[in-house]
Write a structure and sequence with these properties.
Blueprint (H helix, E strand, L loop, with lengths): L2 E5 L5 H15 L6 H8 L5 H8 L4 E6 L2 E8 L4 E7 L8 H15 L5 E6 L3 H6 L3 E10 L2 E10 L7
Parallel strand pairs: 4-5
Antiparallel strand pairs: 1-2, 2-3, 3-4, 5-7, 6-7
Helix pairs in contact: 1-2, 1-3
């Protein structure tokens, strides 16, 4: 199956919100409790919040057969804020393709290091792609403590 990539647009808010919601509630069920997933992803999809948020995001949408299946956002300093793939598309190269595209954009725009706050579920994915854990941390969302990892990656130096 071919993964097609394109820039994320404000009008993608519905697809992005659906991917996020499904990824959090279904895709992280092995790592987080129901209460933790509800604190992180909410009880319902908050379309107005996503519509507002997408206005400020830079990143990419991955599509398979014309359907959005994943997205990633990266800021000019190299911070990966959002990286989510539909559970039905997990393990098919979507996340890796998105991450490669975001890393390339950040480094070509001058970022000296990439950073992210990775969930328990995302940590192995980032490590597989050369990222390193800086520290484990806990954040509070709606009275619930969520565990995650601060991670980073430096550009690979070429020998040319």
């Amino acid at each position: 199956m071919i993964i097609e990539m394109r820039a994320i647009r404000p009008e993608d808010y519905f697809d992005v919100s659906r991917i996020f919601f499904c990824a959090v509630h279904e895709g992280t069920s092995h790592a987080y409790s129901v209460a933790e997933r509800r604190a992180w992803g909410g009880d319902t999809i908050d379309l107005p919040r996503w519509k507002e948020r997408l206005i400020t995001l830079t990143g990419f949408i991955a599509e398979m057969d014309g359907e959005p299946v994943g997205f990633i956002s990266v800021n000019p300093l190299g911070y990966i804020d959002l990286a989510f793939v539909l559970p039905s598309a997990a393990g098919k190269g979507v996340g890796g393709a998105l991450l490669e595209k975001a890393e390339h954009l950040a480094f070509t725009q001058g970022a000296s290091c990439l950073t992210t706050a990775a969930s328990l579920a995302a940590r192995p994915f980032f490590e597989k792609h050369g990222w390193v854990v800086l520290e484990k941390e806990q954040v509070e969302r709606g009275g619930v403590i969520l565990r995650r990892y601060q991670m980073h990656k430096h550009p690979v130096k070429s020998d040319h």
